[in-house]
Design brief:
The chain is mainly alpha-helical. Helices cover 75% and strands 0% of the residues. The protein has helices at 3-58, 63-75, 79-82, 98-105. α1 (3-58) runs antiparallel to α2 and α2 packs antiparallel against α4. The longest helix is centred in the first third of the chain and has 56 residues, at 3-58. The chain starts with a helix and ends with a helix.
Length: 108
């Protein structure tokens, strides 16, 4: 192996390493962006159910009845099946289930 081919081999390997690194950072940024957008949509949806719960209680309905009905509607919402991104960064997935998120949102 002469000096020229060793130099070219090092340049190719360095280019591959840099390229893979750039792709990995780009993919990570895309996943972060999708995760952020998902959490924003989730917060808006849960806020909607929180407002519905408050309106239900203001109508002199029993808080437990309101909470049970809205929790059921919240957990069956299409959002939970349709909006989940293919990749999501979640450090505590056991606390991100629809049941837990809806129970936190609709207290009663």
């Amino acid at each position: 192996m002469d000096r020229t081919s060793a130099f070219l081999l090092r340049r190719v390997v360095l280019g591959v390493i840099v390229g893979v690194t750039v792709l990995a950072v780009g993919f990570f940024g895309w996943v972060q962006f999708r995760t952020s957008e998902y959490h924003k949509r989730e917060a808006r949806m849960l806020l909607h159910y929180r407002h519905d719960y408050a309106a239900c209680v203001r109508q002199q309905t029993a808080p437990a009845t309101c909470a049970r009905q809205l929790r059921q509607l919240c957990t069956q919402d299409v959002f939970w099946q349709r909006e989940q991104p293919p990749f999501i960064i979640d450090l505590a997935p056991q606390f991100s289930t629809p049941e837990v998120r809806c129970r936190e949102s609709v207290s009663g």
